[in-house]
Prior knowledge:
By secondary structure, the chain is mainly alpha-helical. It is built from 1 helix and no strands.
Amino acid sequence: MSTLESVIWHVLGYAAMPVIILSGFVAVAAVSVWLLSLGKDKKVN
């Protein structure tokens, strides 16, 4: 494997964990907001 390939794989490897964690956080936040909005009173005075 060339040096360039090695650098690319290292960057992808180190970038994968924060992307997975942040996307999971965003997904959980979106589902939580959606669930909370189901119980909100929609009547406008």
